Amino acid sequence: MTELSYRDAMREALREALNRDERVFLMGEDIGRYGGCFAVTLGLLEEFGPDRIRDTPLSESAFVGAGIGAALGGMLPIVEVMTVNFSLLALDQIVNNAAALLYMSGGQFNVPLVIRMSTGGGRQVAAQHSHSLEGWYAHVPGIRVLAPATLEDARGMLWPAVEDPDPVLIFEHASLYNMRGDLADTTGDITSAAVRRFGDDVTIIAYGGTVRTAIEAAGTLAEGGISSEVIDLRSLRPLDTATFVSSAVRTHRAVVVDEGWCTGSLAAEVCSRIAEEAFYDLDAPVRRVCSAEVPMPYAKHLEDAALPQPADVVEAVRALGA
Amino acid sequence: MTELRSGGIRPSGIEIDGTHEHAIHLLRQMLRIRRFEERTVQLYSEMRIRGFLHLDIGEEACAVGVMESLRPEDAVVSTYREHGHALARGMSMRAVMAELEGKVEGCSRGRGGSMHLFDAPTRFYGGNAIVGGGLPLAVGLALADHLAKRPVVTVCFFGDGAVAEGEFHESMNLAAVWGLPVLFCCENNLYAMGTALDRYESETDLSLKAASYRVPAWEVDGMDVIAVEEATRAAAESVRGGGGPHFLELRTYRFRAHSMYDPDRYRDKNEIERWKQRDPIGSLSNRLGADGHLSEEDLDGIESEIQAEVEDAVTFAEAGSLEPLSDLYRFVMSESATGGATP
Amino acid sequence: MGAFRMPSLGADMDVGTVTHWLIKPGDRVDRGDIVAVVDTEKSTIEVEIFESGVVDSILVGEGEEVAVGTPLAQISTNGISTARTEAPRRPQVAPAPKSPITSPVVRRLAEKLGVDLATLAGSGAGGKVTRADVEQAARLLEAEPEVVEAKPEIAEPELEISKTEQVAETGTALRRGSASVRPPAGTRTARPSWSRASPLARRIAAEKGVDVSTVRGSGPGGAVIAVDLSRPEPSARVQRVPRSPPAPEEEPARGHEARGRQAAMRRAIGNLMARSKREIPHYYLSTTIEMSTAAGWIERTNLDRSVAERLVLPVLLIKAVGRAVAAAPEMNGFMIDDSFVPSSAVHVGVAISLRQGGVIAPAIHDVDQLPLSELMKALRDLVGRARSGSLRSSEMSDPTITVTNLGDLGVESVFGVIYPPQVALVGFGRITDRPWAQDGLLGVRPCLTATLSADHRASDGHRGGRFLAEIERLLHNPEEL
Amino acid sequence: MTRDDALDLVKAVLHQVAPEAEIEDVGPDQTIQEALDMDSIDFLNLVIGLSEKTGIDIPERDYPQLITPDGLVSYLTAKAR
Q1: Number of cross-chain residue pairs from B and C with Cβ atoms under 8 Å apart
Q2: Which among B129, C70, C156, D73 is least surrounded, fewest beta carbons within 10 Å?
């Protein structure tokens, strides 16, 4: 066990992928000389050279599309997009090409591409760098969407994502990069949700940056005698429905914590599935704790108010009468 | 590095540089496309083909000329007006027709239809129906070859309308800055759907745009299959030899509507008639006839062979089967995928 | 001979109008010739012909709107050398949705006469359904309605007319549906009133045969939640809707069922008490009450009463509690959503142990208002019914305070667990003779320990003490009861 | 009323008051209330039932004689004429 940060864990995963397979290469804005805007790729250019660590022009559509093309051409590209907000410039390529090519071609052309991007708020970078749009991507069939929330998942999810024959989007919550800890063994699982805390009275479902929020809330609730089960979705598409539904069936109450906006959110999808599959086991309505429906404000107090906080989760759980 | 307009447009007529046998082969290929598409019009009218059906009629020289100069290992990225590209590339007419009729025997199992023809054996990476959307893909395919140091060219077709998309500029730049082996083939038929080039581009000289990215750009008479083939061969070999991306502007014209039928309100009938005088098939066939290399009987023979091929394709498509509904979810994800959860 | 049909000029085209014919009978046409101008909803388009031949006849006049596929002209191909002479094959499998070939006039007639066009084989040119066909079908419909009616099952539902009908029907159903969910204000409805209950609570209620609307909810906004149904298990049993009398064959299973019920009750009590201990910050007070006055008073009173009318001590205790809350209203009511809601009525829950195990605490209503004799009757009745399992659900669901008396079992004092969402429980032990100092003299007197368990969120010890003192005062003055 | 009649009567009334209780379960030196886990109301109901069936007025002061099965049967046979 070594003490490191989420950023280090992700870099280790990238290094491993580059070492394991020659077809792997990295592409993105300022990932080379600059070292990555979140310093995830720092040092990799020196180690692997400019052919495999490729600085791109600020052309999201072209380099994400080129990643798709290179994947079609037999490579295993890992493309970094600075933030999910910027990924909208490549939305055409992700949705119309990456996600659709296998199906449109009747199974002939799969796209073994990994796209990493940062997501989420909490850093006072306002309305064009802070949003959580994972739910939009999770809406689209044909891609796999992951949200590593722990050091282990940052380290462990990349390689299976690279090996996966289909496009995989990895969302790294920007507030997690500095999270430090001992790296435990990683399982390399990209298909199932994880129970981060066991409990009996309520199921709190979270992913990415909100997993910490949920765990903190669970701690507070425990002091008041409420035992919470915290589930980290990990895979946002496909959703591991069985894990959170079976938990809700057992606890009879569920709260979904999602940094996306409430309307049409991934949280809404999770709620629907619980309602569809656990309705007769619910003892209270399923609640959502989401971001305020505003473009992310800059001022600290406003941003805090806009983002889901542990206290909001505690309040939501209490309101269910758990 | 800018060899702007080094190709140029031939002032008049068709000059047959190679053998007459090869010219007849080119004619046959263009006729296959023409007769195939004429038949699809009828099938569309009878509702056997649905959705959009963008016809290549009038532009056959571009498809045939470009494809003739490629090698089997080269890759092709195409647009939604790609029946000609597919057939000229060597895809089975049966599979293309079956695709148009939505049959599982189709080249995309009936999943794609007219706009999304795919074929792995000929490295045909599809009809892309997002204008400009195929360009980044082609850049990536070329990047893969570049990284693997394979002497392979990726040809990317797009229309004049795509030049207005950001993806055109991003891709042109990225391919140029990385020196990737892409051959950009712009089929300039003067209309982005119903909007004339000079109504949507401030600079209507498209080669100039490519040249501004330091990409060698040539203008070619897209109604002259021999000129297209010649220019493409030169460009492709330059690309293959490490010359980086090249750009061909194929000046052509579609004789029919944007998709199946349209009222043609946006263009003058006389303009269509003028271009029809330069029908790539008629021009080559006349030239071959005038040179005494193609008799009426020869032409009839070719026509009836092609008709047989087309009817065989229709018979094949009609006899084809519909993909079972139980397969609706197949190929959303790869069947060897690690995940097992529901979509 | 071939038919030139109205072509489909776009995926969204269903009908077209020939605005102008460019050919006439006798004209020679070649494949690819423009033969007509057709107006679709989107535009006017010149249409071409796919056969070569001689125009035999024009079937549809200019200005007439016809469905796609309708023959527009007959083309004679006899003696004409043409590349294509065969009639277009019809698709063998899953034909594309299409309307029967007919004219608008005939279509309207069919609608009027209630004839499903899809069931008709057209006798007209190219299988066209004619006016005569429709009239014939209408006559058949009158004569043998079932024959025609049976056919639509086979008929393609894609026919436009039936599609419209389906939509209309669905619309009606929807409106009906919403009407039943939300009856207009002021109208009487036979439906029981909708009560807020969680899906889990409803499921449990259905399993137990309990009418969930009779259960008082302790969940958010007063919703019935699972725990509310766990508590009154025995009452739930008797609330069971008498769907059918129990069959004698069920007898052997009873022992097992009873054990199952006991286990369920044990679990339910456990859950409720666990919730109480988890949620309610209990505080406890106790006081010893000298009972000679009360005991003597009962003895004297009973002398004049027949067996059935005699009072027992618990009646006095219950009454004393019921009266004492007037002095300490914080003891009587519920915690709802973290705030105390006092109750104006005094419904005293009486903890009754069941001999097969378990305890329930049904309420005697309006204890403060009931004369002792009535209270006695009520108590006897309640105990009897609790034991035989015939409580009313209201008795189960609405105690405002509970009394538990374990004196019969010989315990001296009871520190009870409050029944959520109530806020207080008074426990009484047995009457024992104890040394008692009064007015400076030591004597042996019958004494009883009263214990208060109260919710600290609703009251403080000071109020609790006052409440116990009032109980004591009342028991010292039984005639006031 | 014979002792057997009295015993049958006690059984019948007891069955109404506490259906699952059996008088045979009560040991010779046990009280009915204790052995059958009856509370004061149950006991009162038993007395009321017996009084109603036999027409005997059972004053409260006689209750101590009724606490064992034997005492109960003796009391009833003595009082019933």
Answers
A1: 52
A2: C156
